[in-house]
Amino acid sequence: MTTHTIAILGGSGFVGSRLCARLARDGHTIRVLTRHRDRHRDLLVLPTVEVMEGNPHDPAVLDGFVAGCDVVINLVGILNERQHDGSGFERAHVELPGKIIAACRAHGIRRLLHMSALGADADHGASHYQRSKGRGENLVLAADGLDVTTFRPSVIFGPGDSFLRRFAGLLRITPLMFPLACPTARFQTVYVGDVVECYARAIDDAHTYGHSYSLCGPRVYTFLELVRYTARVAGTPRLILPLPDWASRMQAEIFEWLPGKPFSRDNYLSTRHDNVCPEPFPEVFGITPTPLESIAPYYLGGAGERRRYERLRGRD
Ligand SMILES: NC(=O)c1ccc[n+]([C@@H]2O[C@H](COP(=O)([O-])OP(=O)(O)OC[C@H]3O[C@@H](n4cnc5c(N)ncnc54)[C@H](OP(=O)(O)O)[C@@H]3O)[C@@H](O)[C@H]2O)c1
To answer: Is 156 touching ligand 1 by the criterion CB < 6 Å?
Structure first.
C-alpha cells in the first residue's frame, strides 16, 4: 500500500478523530488543523499524527497546512450557525471548500476527499444547511485538475456521536415526559466505523474519482423510533410525546434562541425530506454496513457495556 501525507480539515471532530486513528493504522502521515489545539490532545497519542493550530479560513494558514501533503480531506461542517441568515453555513460549507481547492492547486495536490451530507442539494434543499452543503459539493466535484470523491452520509452514529448521545443526555435530565419534535422524520443512520473505512479505501482507488457516494446503514428509522430505542438502551424509560408539526416548528423557533442552539428552524427544515439512501451501500468499498443495534448499546449503556465495545474495537 502507498502511504501518503494527508492534511485533514475537521480532523478533530467526531468523524475526524476516528478517521485519524484509521488512517494512522495504515501508516499514513497525518496533519490535523484545529482552531483549539488544547482541546484535542488525545489525537497526539496516535502515531504519525501532527496537530496544528490555526484558522482554516485564513489562506496563509491553509497554505502552510497543506504544503508537502499529497492528499487533502475536508470534514469541516456545522449543523447550526451563530448567525440567522445562512452566512455562517455559506462560509463553512462553500467558501472554505473554495479556499481548499485553491490551496490544493497552489501545491499541486490532486487528491481531495470531501464530506457532504445526505440531502445536500444546492437548488432544492429545504434548509441553509442542505443548500450550502450542496453548493460546496458541486464546487469540489467541478474543480478542474483535481481527483475528487465526495461522501453523503445520513446521520452518523458511534461512540462520541452528537445525535444519539445527545438524546440519551436529554432523556436522563427530563422528568417523565419527553416532547419530541419532527417524530416522523426518517433517517438511515450509518456507523462511523463504516464511514471512515470508505475514506480509507477510497484514497488510492481511482474508480472513486469524480464520484459522490451516499452512505447509509441497513435500516430506516423514524426519529420517534430512534429516540425510543435510545431511551431503552440507555435505561431511561420516559413517556415520549410526539409533537405535531406546528408544535415542532414552534419548539425550533424557541430553542433557536437558547445557548448552543439545541434545535433551530434550519434543523427543523432539514427534516422536511427523508434522510434515506436512494440505493444500497456502494459496492466499490466492499463493506457490509453495521446495524445500529450491534454498536449503540455499548456506548449508550453502562460502563461494562462500554468496556465490551472497546474489546470488540480492539479486534477490528
Ligand atoms: N455527524 C453526522 O451525523 C453527520 C452526518 C452527515 C454529514 N456530516 C458531516 O461530516 C462532517 C464531520 O462531522 P462531525 O460530526 O465529525 O462534526 P464535528 O464533530 O462537529 O466536527 C466538526 C469539525 O469541523 C471543524 N469546524 C467546525 N466549525 C468550523 C468552522 N466554522 N470553521 C472551521 N472549522 C470548523 C471543527 O474543528 P475545530 O477543532 O477547529 O473546532 C471539527 O474538527 C461535517 O462536514 C458534517 O457536516 C456529519
So the answer is: yes
Query: Cβ of 159: how many Cβ atoms within 10 Å?
Result: 18
Q: Which residue, 225, 184, 226, 212, is CA-closest to 278?
A: 212
pTM: 0.95
Query: CB of 148 within 8 A of CB of 140?
Result: yes
Give nearest CA residue, ligand 1 atom 22.
Answer: 13
47: pLDDT confidence band, cut at 50, 70 and 90?
Answer: confident
Atom 5, ligand 1: residue with shortest CA distance: 155
Report the alpha-carbon distance of residue 65 to residue 223 in Å, rounded.
39
Mean pLDDT of the chain: 94
Quick: pLDDT tens for 95-144. Answer: 999 999 999 999 999 999 999 999 999 999 999 999 999 999 999 999 99
Is the CB of 138 within 6 Å of ligand 1? no
Q: How confident is the model at residue 63 (pLDDT cuts 50, 70, 90)?
A: very high
3-state secondary structure 266-302: HHHHHCCCCECCCCCCCHHHCCCCCCHHHCHHHHHCC
Q: Check residue 176 and give its pLDDT.
A: 86
**DSSP type of residue 92:** I
| Nearest residue by C-alpha to atom 34 in ligand 1 | 76
Cell 419532527, located at residue? 182
Q: How far, in Å, is the centroid of ligand 1 from the Cα of 56? A: 13
For ligand 1, is residue 117 a contact (CB within 6 Å)? yes
Going along the chain from its start, the domains and CATH numbers come out as: 5-156+190-216+277-286 (3.40.50.720)
C-alpha cell at 38: 488544547
Cα 305 to averaged position of ligand 1 atoms, centre (Å): 27
Which residue's C-alpha comes closest to atom 1 of ligand 1? 156
Q: Is the CB of 16 under 6 A from ligand 1?
A: yes
pLDDT tier at 207, thresholds 50, 70, 90:
very high
